[in-house]
Amino acid sequence: MRVFVTGASGWIGTAVVGELLATGHEVSGLARSAGSAAKLEAKGVEVRRGDLDDLAGLRAGAEAADAVIHLANKHDFANPAVSNAAERAAVETIGDALSGSGRPLLLASGIAGIRQGRPATEADASPFHGPDSPRGGAENLALEYAGRGVRPVSLRFSPTVHGTGDHGFIAVLSAIAREKGVSAYPGDGTNRWAAVHVRDAARMVVLGLEKAPAGARLHAVAEEGVPTKEIAEAIGRAFDLPVASVAPDDVAAHYGWIGGFFAMDLAATSSATQELLGWTPEGPTLIEDLDTGAYSG
Predict the structure, then answer these.
(1) Which of 187, 192, 218 is nearest to 117 (CA)?
(2) Tens digits of per-residue pLDDT, 115-159?
(3) Whole-angstrom Cα distance, residue 258 to residue 173?
(4) Could you tell me which residues are beta bridge partners of residue 110?
(5) Do 26 and 125 lie in a common domain?
(6) Which of 35, 119, 212, 253 could form a disulfide bond with 216, CB atoms 3.0-4.6 angstroms apart?
(7) 228-239 vs 169-180: helix axis angle to the nearest 10?
(8) How big is the chain by its Cα radius of gyration, in Å?
(9) What does the pLDDT look like over 80-121, one tens digit per residue?
(10) 155 and 27 in one domain?
(11) In angstroms, rounded to a whole number, what is the distance separating the alpha carbons of residues 117 and 17?
(12) Is residue 276 one of the residues assigned to a domain?
């Protein structure tokens, strides 16, 4: 297939592009900068210069492809309304471009807020609808295109997609620990984060492209939930820092914007995804990555 990938030069996107090429697909990728474009071109990717605000470019990329994997997001945590609006507009533009074609639209989503009180499963529908909701309600918007001749698939990534070179949440928590001189966890540290290695996540995405039916919700989850205390302890070992609890009322002051996420229980299962796709996670665990220096460079 000829696959158009947004976020092609990002952390997950880089791994997905590599997996697509390794399995014989052709790739066109969205790139904002000359540096990102050069890296993609060096891999044999056809580059489309632009960003999520270039809706005409997104439409053209989707129309020229056999499938779209939408991984880009502004991730502007200081101005979430900006990120939400851009995400919704991008999904609507791509969905309209693919309408009536039967072609796949896979989009990045997440575990946060899907379920409270127990691990989230693929059977749990997202509670987020409408442009003012998290991610602009993009998951539900995309799945509605199943009724308009598109094969939409939601890719729900673990809160940590880890590995060497990751600049996401675990890297941010590590930086905060070094800045504060202590690796902290919220409260009693029993709340959990699902986790998956980036290579396993990329394999799941490509299998989802090839096998998942319209309306599927896939969970890129290898570990159902790693307690935040264990995460903090591993960060402490990695940087030779003491480990301590942060009272719930002090989480925001200690962690800043990421505190709300680190205090959440974000456990999830992937049994249905593994059965549907024949996917078995094989990469190192999050704690193994921390203990072997993946975040120490």
Answers:
(1) 192
(2) 888 999 999 999 999 998 888 899 999 999 999 999 999 999 999
(3) 8
(4) 157
(5) yes
(6) 212
(7) 60
(8) 19
(9) 888 899 999 999 999 999 999 999 999 999 999 898 889 999
(10) yes
(11) 35
(12) no
User: 0.90 cut: is pTM over it?
Assistant: yes
- Asked if 128 and 134 touch (Cβ cutoff 8 Å), the reply is yes
What are the backbone dihedrals phi and psi of residue 219, each rounded to the nearest 5 degrees, phi first?
A: -110, 115
pLDDT band for position 8 (cuts 50, 70, 90): very high
Q: Please state, as a whole number, how many other Cβ atoms lie within 10 Å of the Cβ of residue 32.
A: 15
Question: Is the same domain home to 95 and 22?
Answer: yes
CA separation for the pair 48, 29 (Å, rounded)? 6
* Cβ 108 vs Cβ 100: under 8 Å: no
CATH number of the domain bearing residue 46: 3.40.50.720
Cβ count near 34 (within 10 Å): 10
**Structural domain containing residue 256:** 160-195+224-267+282-291
What is d(CA 228, CA 280) in angstroms, rounded to the nearest whole number?
A: 24
